[in-house]
Design a protein that fits this description.
5% strand, 2 strands, two-stranded antiparallel ribbon, 77 residues, 5 helices
Protein backbone atom coordinates (compact mmCIF):
# COMPACT_ATOMS: atom_id res chain seq x y z
CA UNK A 1 0.00 0.00 0.00
CA UNK A 2 1.43 3.36 -1.05
CA UNK A 3 1.54 6.24 1.41
CA UNK A 4 1.67 8.84 -1.35
CA UNK A 5 -0.41 11.96 -0.79
CA UNK A 6 -1.51 13.68 -3.99
CA UNK A 7 -2.32 17.37 -4.03
CA UNK A 8 -3.64 20.23 -6.14
CA UNK A 9 -1.65 23.00 -4.48
CA UNK A 10 0.01 24.17 -7.72
CA UNK A 11 -3.34 24.21 -9.52
CA UNK A 12 -5.01 26.20 -6.75
CA UNK A 13 -2.11 28.65 -6.64
CA UNK A 14 -2.28 29.16 -10.41
CA UNK A 15 -6.06 29.66 -10.36
CA UNK A 16 -5.70 32.33 -7.69
CA UNK A 17 -2.45 33.92 -8.92
CA UNK A 18 -0.66 33.12 -5.66
CA UNK A 19 3.12 32.64 -5.66
CA UNK A 20 4.86 29.98 -3.61
CA UNK A 21 6.26 32.72 -1.41
CA UNK A 22 2.82 34.28 -0.84
CA UNK A 23 1.36 30.91 0.13
CA UNK A 24 4.33 30.16 2.38
CA UNK A 25 4.01 33.53 4.09
CA UNK A 26 0.29 32.95 4.61
CA UNK A 27 0.99 29.57 6.17
CA UNK A 28 4.07 30.57 8.15
CA UNK A 29 6.35 28.07 6.39
CA UNK A 30 9.45 28.41 4.20
CA UNK A 31 8.66 28.88 0.50
CA UNK A 32 10.70 25.76 -0.35
CA UNK A 33 8.29 23.74 1.76
CA UNK A 34 5.51 24.68 -0.66
CA UNK A 35 7.65 23.40 -3.55
CA UNK A 36 8.33 20.12 -1.72
CA UNK A 37 4.61 19.71 -1.08
CA UNK A 38 3.66 20.44 -4.69
CA UNK A 39 6.15 17.90 -6.02
CA UNK A 40 5.02 15.24 -3.56
CA UNK A 41 8.45 15.14 -1.90
CA UNK A 42 6.92 15.98 1.47
CA UNK A 43 3.56 15.04 2.97
CA UNK A 44 2.04 17.70 5.20
CA UNK A 45 0.98 17.16 8.76
CA UNK A 46 -2.76 17.09 9.26
CA UNK A 47 -2.53 20.56 10.79
CA UNK A 48 -0.69 21.98 7.77
CA UNK A 49 -3.07 20.24 5.33
CA UNK A 50 -6.04 21.82 7.09
CA UNK A 51 -4.37 25.23 7.07
CA UNK A 52 -3.69 24.96 3.33
CA UNK A 53 -7.35 24.10 2.71
CA UNK A 54 -8.41 27.05 4.88
CA UNK A 55 -6.05 29.36 2.97
CA UNK A 56 -7.76 28.44 -0.32
CA UNK A 57 -11.19 28.31 1.36
CA UNK A 58 -11.96 24.79 0.10
CA UNK A 59 -12.52 21.43 1.80
CA UNK A 60 -9.31 19.52 2.47
CA UNK A 61 -10.48 16.82 0.02
CA UNK A 62 -10.24 19.36 -2.81
CA UNK A 63 -6.53 19.86 -2.07
CA UNK A 64 -5.36 16.39 -0.96
CA UNK A 65 -6.10 12.78 -1.88
CA UNK A 66 -4.63 9.33 -1.36
CA UNK A 67 -5.31 8.52 -5.03
CA UNK A 68 -4.29 10.52 -8.08
CA UNK A 69 -6.63 13.28 -9.16
CA UNK A 70 -8.10 12.93 -12.66
CA UNK A 71 -6.47 15.15 -15.22
CA UNK A 72 -8.36 18.30 -16.11
CA UNK A 73 -10.84 17.51 -18.86
CA UNK A 74 -10.59 13.77 -18.22
CA UNK A 75 -13.91 12.04 -17.82
CA UNK A 76 -14.56 9.97 -14.73
CA UNK A 77 -16.89 6.99 -14.91
Amino acid sequence: MSETVYNRIALLRAERNVTRRQLADGLGVHYQTVGYLERGEYSPSLYLALRIAEYFEVPVEVVFSTSPFPRIGERTV
